Amino acid sequence: MPGLVAYDRARAVRYAEAWALKRNPRYMNFDGMGGDCTNFASQCLFAGCGVMNYARDVGWYYIGPNRRAAAWSGVEYLHRFLVANRGAGPFAVEADPADLRPGDLVQLGTAGGRFYHTPVVVAVAGGQILVAAHTFDALYRPLSSYSFSALRCLHIAGARRP
Rounded to whole angstroms, how far apart are CA atoms 132 and 2? Predict the structure, then answer.
């Protein structure tokens, strides 16, 4: 049984603050290939837990541009990984927006249920959820300023060591 790892929300937020408006050269920039938002969200998650899941096809990892899991940079794949993960790496539960905390993720979608953007929660203040994101770079942007029809909230519950 993998050991539990506490999710360091403060560390995830510090990473988001440091890299929201620029790119970490250790990771590929996906802006020209569909967007960099989920890649950035994964970087923040990794900063907060320090554990990847190297399971081929269903894991969550980044070794290099051509050696990464689909869940590292794909909105739907990341959601699927986080809510179903019983192995190594971070795991999440879907939550109500009122239950979000810094370090959690939100995913924005269309009325038809296609999710297309993954911002990272960096603060919850005065009833406002503030996020950081790539593709449409943002830092401390109110979630309410985005235009979306569907919202998924992912509360990061922790992580597991392999």
Answer: 31
